[in-house]
Amino acid sequence: MPVLELRVATLNISGGEKTFEEFPHDTQQSRQEALKILVDRLDADVLCLQEVSQFIDADGVTHSLMDAVNQAGGYDYSFYGQTVSMKDHMQVKKDVMVKGVFNDWWDWSKGNAVHARIPFARLGNPSRPGLPRNIPLYQPIIYEGTRDTDPRFVLISRLKTAPFPFVATLHLTTMLGERAPQRLPAKLEAAQILRYQQIRRFLDLVREHILHKDEPLILAGDFNASPEEFCLAHLLESENGFVRLVPEKEGPSHASSEQLIDHIFFYPHQRLLDYTCRIESGDLSRRASDHLPVVADLQIK
Question: Of 223, 198, 288, which is closest to residue 17 (Cα–Cα)?
């Protein structure tokens, strides 16, 4: 059985590039430049990003960091999976959407992205070229323009090199009021229930075609959940056999969190030969985003 060495990184780039209008021009440009330098230094074979935003201006030109990230990291393959947009979710409570209307944008959206140096394969036939799929995990009936009602998706891809691992990136729900300094117990409980439901739906998605076949699966993203939360410690690890890749020096990965909330998991354990994992801290990471990258070097079969 072939052995594949792979470096995978995950980063929520919200703090670095949320709306293209969030920061003064000099600060915005500084953060974009920091992100490009950071991507180069991470040197990941597969880079999973969350909260990637882009817009189409009045002349039909798309403004996105996708090309810049591809160039910085040497990625020939990338895919953007939209989670929310002006076209599908126009909401006057969302400031960036109102700005978009009066700046004559055709559209604004945000979502998850995967960048790779290895070609993508078809999910069902890894010998053929293919594209990732963007699958909903949570779609509220009404979008209110807040994180509480943000739709949540998983972007699932497969790499076209043996042993043809699947790579899934997601961004689970967080709710206003679930974290310090004004933590509300009811909000925390509601958020944990939503995250549990979203992980359950993800497992329903992959169970028959990946888990039951013991196909290699890398799951990375912003889970908004600490390692001890039920949806991770029990549902993923204890009940379904996922291995959390524990960083060497574990600590918070977000400015407002007391614990690690960005994670990388692998399934099944018997196909994971070895790994190292770290949180990429430092000034450059903090300039690029309010999250810190989590990076893992894996040997899988």
Answer: 288
pLDDT digits (tens, 9 = 90+) for 2-31: 899 999 999 999 844 443 444 444 566 788
Instruction: Quick: pLDDT tens for 238-275.
Output: 999 999 999 998 988 987 788 999 999 999 999 999 99
* CA gap 299, 6 in Å, rounded: 7
Instruction: Report all structural domains of the chain as residue ranges with CATH numbers, in order of start.
Output: 4-300 (3.60.10.10)
